[in-house]
Each structure stands twice: as C-alpha cells, then as structure tokens.
DNA sequence: GCAATACGATGACGATCGTAATCTAAAAAG
DNA sequence: CTTTTTAGATTACGATCGTCATCGTATTGC
C-alpha cells in the first residue's frame, strides 16, 4: 500500500552539485510535483502544518526551496493539496473494509504510533479546524468520501434506511477518531493511552454488533 | 463562569508610557503571572501552540515580551502550564454533571463554535500529541481528573464494577471529543459539521441510556 | 534547428520567531 | 534608612519564516 514508487533520480541530480543545471521533462516535473505533495502530506501529518517550513519540506522531497512557487501559489495551497492527498489515501485504504474491519485497524496501537502514515483526519483534524475555508472544505469532502466508502461495505444491502447506516458510520468514525486523538495526547508508554484505545475499540465493535442484531430483529417479522 | 476578574491596571500603567517604570508587588507579580497563563491558555486554544508567539501573547496580556523569561523558563514551559490551567478549567466545569448532562453541553454547537473558551482537550489534543512529554503528561493527568469527575456523578453508587463505569466514561469522552474535532474540521456553515454533532450527541446519549437500563436489569434478581 | 518556455537552483527580502542582555526603579530585606 | 532584589521595558541577537527576483539550461512549440 502507498508504495511510493518515486525513484530518487533527484538525489543523483543534486549530487552532481555545482553547475550542471538541467531542465526537466514536463512529465518529470509533474511527477516531482506529486512527490512534493506526497512528502508534504507525510511531514504535515508528523509535525503539523505550522511545524514544517517550505524550505525543509522541499529539502525532504529532494529539492531546494526556490522551485516551490513554480508548483504552488502559496504554502496554504500546498497544505490544501497535501490534505486532499492524505485524505484520499485514507479513503482508498478503507475501500472494501466493513465497519468492524475498519475499526479493528483504525483503533489500534499501530495506527496510533504511525502518525506519518496514518489517517490524515486523526493527524491533522485538530489543525485543520484553525485553517482557512478551502482546507476545511477538503476535509469535509474527504470525510464524506470516507463515509460512503464505509457505508458501501456495510451490512445494509439497500432500502430506505440508508440514513440509519449513514448515521451509524458517522458515529463510528467520530468515535474512532476521538479514541486515536485522545490516546495520542497521552505520554508515549502511558497506561492510559493504551487503556483508551482498548476500551474504545471494544465499545465501538460492540455497538456495531448491536446495530447488526437490531437490524436482524427488525427484518424478521415476529418477535 | 471563568469571570476573568483581572482588573486592567496594566493598561493604565502602560498608558503612562515613557519613563514611569515602576516595580510591582510580589502579589501583583503573581497575579500578573496567572493572567499571562490564562491569556495563553485562551490564545493557544484559539490558534494552537505554534500559532501564537511569545511577543503577541505577552501583548495580549498587557505586557511587553521582555518580562516573559522572568516568569517562565521557556515557551514550552508556559505551554505546559497553560495546558494544565485549561484542563483543570474543563474538569471544574464537569464537576457535578452526570455523563448525560456533560454530553449535552459538550457535543453542542456552542461548544464547537467557542474554541477559545471550550475544552482544552478538544482544542489542543491534536497539537499536544506532537509536543514533548511534559505537556502530554499534563494532558494525561487532566484526562484522568476529568474521568474521575464524571465517574463520581455517575449512577453507579459503589461496588466492584467501578471498572465498568470507568470504561463507560472513557468511551464517552473519546466519543465526544471525536465528535467536536470532526465537526470543527468542516467548513463553518457546513451541513456535515452540524450533522456530525447531532448524530453523535444522539448516539452517545442513547448508549448512556442503554448502559443505565442494563444496570437496572442486572440489579433486579429476576428477569 | 530556432525561439520561447519553464523547472529548478541560488540568493536575498522583510518579518517574525524564541531567547537573552541591559537597564530602571520600586518593593523587599536588613 | 540603606541595601539588595526583581518585575517589567527596551533593545538586540541569530535563526527561521514565507515569498520573490534572477538566472541558467534543457525541453518544448514552432
């Protein structure tokens, strides 16, 4: 997943150092741009929007800071794009998972401890709330996409109460996000951090199971 | 609530401008320090730890930035103190509320739209995860205090399964925090933002009611 | 092939960042 | 009363911030 196929020809290029300045194919440039966005998405998740500067970001992608504004109109623009990229990655990973499977992976120590490769909502949701409208719009779209992805795999095949399924998924997502964020706010080896995760995973799965059994009961006419 | 009794003698003082530099009572200094912490707690909640500089912070409190290091060893120190202050405010407000009352106030539009006066966990939890250990320790302590405050008012009077009550409160808190953060990440007038809040409030209250009825059923010996 | 284009490097800009030294005068200590 | 202490203002440090101007060159459009 998220293989990051980007071959580091740029490093080679920069190793030639001094004066061998060479221009780059249109396709290469596009690829470079995508690589910058991917790098930004990772770095922002790790240290927050304000925690990474343009220069450091470009350096991490294998470039100098000068070329930045050939690709993006501002840092805020990149923030929006990197957010969208990260969010769609989360959506892609949720595809084909039923809610219980999603929760099992989402509310886990591995996810909590892997900020840079984890869910953008959990990593940057708190920061996004303070950002301009276009970034929050990306978040809303990402959340909406995640909802439909999770709903499509739900156990409600198809009838009028897809509304109930949507409600269930919204609630489950908020619950899972809250569990991760609360756990991450605690010190690293903290017992409370693990307790929060374990308790919430159990409770969320239980409430999913209960919804399913309610549905079963509703579908059988008697008792 | 949180009346901010701090009388603005400092403004008067600063209006005297130029050369009337006067020293301040030990009690005044202590009061000033507390005021700086309170101002920082509010500003940090509004704009994040990285979103407010020392100079702006001191100016907001009515001082120049020079005196800062007479009160705090570093900005990180103030961040820890401001966090602790904000967290204990949240705990104080939760005192005497049963879980349902807490949820009703917490998972609300008023709370979501009032970042600077709202819960520190919801406002800075995402940022805290990226901060040094001492700040996360403050958060863990604050969360623990909030848990006991909410548990003390729960409907479980006192027996061996206080563990169940604790689990319930942990789960409810993570759920509520997630709802607020998710809603805040959406654009200002967004329907999704309100939908998340409404759905989650309803579901959290429902699950609280169910826990209560389960308890009732368990306490009565037959059926 | 020639001219125009544009990616990326280099360097610099004003502003702001966290931190610190210096100074002043009144409160605290004696 | 004299001395010491210290809260807070002023000023300044070096680093970093986001942004931009300049330039060179290889790619692109003709």
Task: Walk me through the structure.
By secondary structure, the first copy, chain A, is mostly helical. Chain A has a single domain, classed as Orthogonal Bundle (Tetracycline Repressor, domain 2). Chain A is 70% helix and 0% strand. Chain A contains eleven helices and no strands. In chain A, helix 2 packs across helix 5. The termini of chain A are far apart. The N terminus of chain A is likely disordered. Chains A and B meet through helix 8, helix 9, helix 10 and helix 11 of A and helix 8, helix 9, helix 10 and helix 11 of B. The structure holds a DNA duplex (30 and 30 nucleotides).
Query: What pair of chains forms the biggest interface?
Result: A-B, 49 and 49 residues
Low-confidence segments of chain A: 1-21
The CATH topology of chain A comes to: Tetracycline Repressor, domain 2
CATH architecture type of chain A: Orthogonal Bundle
Helix content of chain A: 55-70%
| Mass-distribution shape of chain A | globular
**Strand content range of chain A:** under 5%
CATH superfamily of chain A: Tetracycline Repressor, domain 2
Domains counted in the coordinates of chain A: how many?
A: 1
What summary fits the major beta sheet of chain A? none
Radius of gyration of chain A, rounded? 21 Å
Number of helices, where a helix is a run of at least 4 consecutive DSSP H or I residues of chain A: 11
Rounded to the nearest angstrom, the distance between the terminal CA atoms of chain A is 46 Å
Number of strands of chain A: 0
* Quaternary: homodimer
- Average pLDDT of chain A: 87
């Amino acid at each position: 997943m998220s293989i990051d196929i980007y071959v580091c020809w740029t490093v080679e290029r920069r190793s030639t150092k001094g004066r061998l300045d060479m221009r780059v194919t249109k396709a290469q440039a596009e690829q470079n741009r995508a690589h910058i966005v991917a790098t930004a998405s990772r770095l922002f998740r790790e240290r927050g929007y304000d925690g990474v500067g343009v220069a450091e970001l470009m350096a991490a992608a294998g470039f100098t800071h000068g070329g930045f504004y050939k690709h993006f109109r501002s840092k805020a623009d990149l923030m929006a794009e990197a957010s969208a990229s990260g969010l769609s990655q989360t959506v892609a990973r949720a595809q084909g998972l039923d809610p219980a499977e999603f929760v099992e992976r989402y509310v886990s120590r591995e996810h909590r401890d892997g900020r840079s490769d984890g869910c953008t909502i959990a990593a940057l949701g708190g920061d996004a709330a303070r950002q301009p409208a276009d970034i929050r719009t990306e978040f809303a779209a990402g959340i909406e996409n995640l909802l439909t992805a999770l709903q499509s795999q739900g156990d409600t095949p198809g009838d009028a109460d897809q509304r109930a399924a949507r409600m269930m998924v919204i609630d489950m997502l908020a619950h899972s996000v809250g569990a991760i964020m609360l756990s991450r706010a605690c010190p690293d080896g903290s017992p409370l951090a693990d307790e929060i995760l374990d308790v919430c995973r159990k409770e969320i799965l239980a409430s999913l199971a209960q919804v399913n059994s309610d549905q079963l009961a509703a579908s059988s006419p008697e008792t």
